[in-house]
Design a protein that fits this description.
By secondary structure, the chain is of the alpha/beta class. Helix content is 16%, strand content 35%. Residues 1-22 form the signal peptide.
Amino acid sequence: MRHSLTAAALAAMLLAVGAAQAQPAAGYTGPSTAAQPARAGQHGSYGGPSSVPLVTVKQLLETGKDEQHARLQGRIVSHDGGDKYTFADDSGRITVEIDDDRFPPGQTIGAEQRVELVGEFDKGLRKREFEVDRITLVN
């Protein structure tokens, strides 16, 4: 019986785990419908010119090809749970998938800040989303 837990102790542990998982995602401070725990990570990134085309959300949704590499500029307007966010520019909105380690280290991004996302368009029969490889703050 050394290793058994009382019902109260088990309930307390489950509440603690739930509270820890309710913390906002690392690197994003805007609206959220669901959150995941923050993860630490220190990653560098390339900051020079890119041959990846800059497109709008509307262009990507209307003419984008599956696995097309692209750059988007606009704002991450909400966290939708897990690694899903909503990104918007002047032409529309798209669901984006951002792993915690893709956010710039040591920086938080709010819903009002402009960013550039570099990644790959995922176009399926039922979903269209953008998988983010890199996020850069835009002045």
